[in-house]
Amino acid sequence: MSDDTIRLVTIGRIIRRRWRLLTVLAVVGALVGYGTSLLFPPRYTTSASVLLPGAWEERELLTQAEIATSSVVVDRAAATLGWTGVSGSELRDRVSAKATDGNIIKISGTADTPERAQRLADQVAQQFVAFAARLAGDDTESAASTGPEALRKMVVQTSRRITELADAADPGRTVESVQGRTELEKLRIALQEAVKKLDEADPVTNKSNMVVMGQAARPAGEAPPTRTQLIVAGALLFFLLAVIGQLTAARMSRRLRTEPEIAAALGSALLGTVDVPGERPAHRPEGSGPRARFRRLLGLDVRWDIPTPRASGDEAGRLIRYRRVCARLRDRLPAPRRLLVVVPEGDEIARRAAEQLVAESRGDRSPTSSGSGYPVLRVVEVSVSQPLVPDRGTESGALVVLSAGSWTADELTGIAEACADGKHEVVGIVVAGAVRARTKRSAGHPPDDAAPALAVPGHAAGGAG
């Protein structure tokens, strides 16, 4: 799988063949998420809105949002709330503010109960409004607040004086008097317009009158992440990690999957491929220990990275493949010989294929022109960790039968070296593959050329057949 593209069918195969392991890991992840939720108490968040009347620029609104979460405002709120063990520095981590559309500052407070969250947001909003009013001078008699009012009084007095001067002037008798009255009227109009503009642009009266838009709503649910979210996130995280781990392990696998790679590792020629019918997945190692039972329980004894077996043809077609292999093996040998059929230990598909080859070789009824028949075969299973092949005796040669995608190059090289140590030449290789058997045929006479199925005893390494 190292060069294959990861597709949805691959993910589906992992889920289908590793569903027990994935379920167990998802449950473990959910328990981890639940434990995490116990370490972090629930949090509740609510917000209070403060309206800023007048015209404000964006940077001014950002400044006001920073003021709302400043240490001065939060410390005053903490002092007013008087919560035991909660200081202003701790509250600053629970308070946030942001400017929204419509000149509104939204102040959010987070606490361990809905009531405390509501009180915190309301108190910070009130302290912010009070602090902003103090900065603007609403609660002082500063010159900034008294100056505009004094200026208005002076404008009124000046307007009256202008009227008196205009009345005292000689109305309409001379050109100079008419021009004087006109200039005085223009001056009075200009003063009134200036006062009007001053009222419209007065930052004290327009920008300092901030309003808290009602009490903060009491939160009805926890702030994220909630306990349910942590449990679901833990289960999903462990599930994804398990899938990614399976994909990574398959991509890093060094098992040989192609026939040329297998032939190169064993140093011999490929005689053909044969099919083994059956619904059981390939390469299911047997065992009776606790570890083997645990692997069977989680489904780890079944390889997921082996493609789904293709549909099988009829029995006659499968038997033809076995006979062709036996014929090629006969043609490669100068005379009928006895051969060892070497099968890697634990390769169930290869073992069944080897047994069928033995049955076909014993049922040979088609002698050649020279009178020679199929070689006599005996099956031996060889451990891939410590390969040991019986020494050359009545058998002089080895036929290796194995399934693709189950063994690495080093393991196959070890089997070839074990054959060489036993003075056996590897005369050929047969690759076995699992197929889905069709429905059984109705009862009837088997074909005349069908070989009987024979049980081959003694599959242990070095056993007699």
UniProtKB/TrEMBL annotation:
Instruction: Identify the keywords attached in UniProt to this record, alphabetized.
Output: Cell membrane, Membrane, Transmembrane, Transmembrane helix
List, alphabetically, the Pfam families matched. Wzz
Q: Which InterPro entries match?
A: Bact_polysacc_biosynth/exp, LPS_length_determ_N
Q: Which residue intervals are annotated with compositional bias (Low complexity) in the record?
A: 450-459
- The membrane-spanning stretches of this chain are 21-40, 230-250
Look up and give the membrane topology term.
Multi-pass membrane protein
Q: Which residues form the Polysaccharide chain length determinant N-terminal domain?
A: 4-64
In residue numbers, the region (Disordered) covers 440-465
Q: Where in the cell is it found?
A: Cell membrane
Q: Which domain of life is it from?
A: Bacteria
Primary localisation category: membrane
Please report which protein family the annotation says this sequence is part of: Belongs to the CpsC/CapA family.
- Name of this chain's protein: Polysaccharide biosynthesis protein
